[in-house]
Amino acid sequence: MEIIGTGFLAHHLQPLRDAHPGYLVLAAGVPRQQLPDRDHRREAALVDDMIERGLRQRRTLVFFSTASMYGAPGCRGLEDDPIVPSTRYGAHKRDLELRIRESGVDHLILRLSYVLGPNGPDFRLVPALMKQILSGRVRILRGARRDMLHVSDFVAVLDRLFGAGVTNDILNVASGDCAEILHVVEHLERRLGVAPEHQIIEGSHVSHCPSVDKLRTLLPEFGEMGLGPGYHRHALSRYLAETGHLSRTA
Question: Can you give the residue ranges of the NAD-dependent epimerase/dehydratase domain (predicted)?
């Protein structure tokens, strides 16, 4: 497959670069929320270029969308449900999804949960929480939840999806373990042996919890990959070990 991009996900996908020649993987785009419109326009232009290439080369364009478009009241995190993004970033990704679907290119749109692993950007959730925890005070939005997927398992899931020839579909790629941020913080504290002050922030909770029902159907081996309830603890411990905070995982 051809990998477009040089960032976190593109780096970890390199072991698959000589496999799955029918796929064109777009792993370069807007990496974070709260960016100016010019960055969104840049990503839209890149998507248009990849659509043209996919059509010309008759390959399946793989687009990394986001599970953060889930979170509106009553949202079940299902791929086929009406989407009302709760963030500007989610709305931007939804618009790009529609652009791809209407273009006629063969495509695979993957709505990713929070993918964590070594060499990830410092501004993302877990590094930001780590910085606060180690500073002695951490802010936690009451009721907020996130599904987390270690990047090695993310790559394994994609390898299996591409091997199965999945195309022209929208699919959540997640662990199926949507953990409360409070529990994430508590696990990090236990593994690091620290006890920072908790500042609990009240207000509307933000929960981006994608369903993995469809993924389970497409990948019968999903249940054998160690994913599901409680998985976030394994993913976080592995992350801590890989980033030098622990000598071993737990």
Answer: 24-174
